[in-house]
Specification:
By secondary structure, this protein is of the alpha+beta class. It contains seven helices and twelve strands. The protein binds zinc ion. The site of zinc ion has 7 residues, from helix 1.
Amino acid sequence: MRQINTFSDKRLDNMCSYCGDFPDTRDHVPSRILLDEPFPENLPVVPCCDKCNQGFSLDEEYFACAIECIIQGTTEIEFLNRQKIKSILSKKENLKKRIESSFVVENENKYFKIDLPRFENAITKLAKGHLKFENSEPQFENPTSIAFKSIFDMDENEEEAFFTPTVFDKAPEVGSRGLQNLLIGHNQEILSHWTIVQEGTYQYMVSVSSGVEIVRILIWNYLAIEVIWRNQ
Ligand SMILES: [Zn+2]
C-alpha cells in the first residue's frame, strides 16, 4: 500500500486512537484477521493502548469468523473458503459452536442471528482506526449510527450511494493523510476516495465535513458498513 507521511500535530499520536490513554503499542487497521496472506506491505497502523489492543481481539475474531460462516452458510470447516478462518475455527471449538448455534431455520429459510454488540464493537474499532489514520484527529465518542448490510441485499440506489465518493465541505485536519490524498472533482469540489487495502478483500472511505464524520468499509466484497458520527 502506498502510504503518505503525516505532518500533523505529533501530540495527537501520543494517545490511544480508541480511548485516549497513553499508547503502549501500535495497532493494524484493519486487523490482519480480515486480510489474506500474503499481507500487503505498509499496512496502516495507529497508536493504541494494551487494554484496547487486547479488549477488541475476541470481538474481532468472532466478527471475522461469523462473516465467513454467513457467506458460506455453514460452520463446517471443509466448506469454508478463507484459510485463516478455517484455522481459527478448527482450533476454537467453543467459538465454532457459538456461531453454529446462531444459525436458525424459520419457514425453511436459514438465518444467522448475529451477536450485535460484538459486531458493533469490532466495527466501531475499525471505523475509529480509519478515522484516526486518515484524519489524524482521533474520535473517542461512540458513533451516532452503525449500519451494515450484504452488498447483495442492496438495491441499485443504495449501492450507488454507498460507493460514490462524498463531497467534503470542510477540509480534513491540516497535515493529515486525508488532506494530502484528496481527489479534486470536476467543479473543484473536494471528494473523498476509497482506499484499497487489499483488492477484493478490504477497502474503506473516510469523509469529514462540518459536524459529520462518515466511514464506509467493504469487507470481502460482501459486507458493506457505514459508521457515522454527528458532532452537533
Ligand atoms: Zn485505548
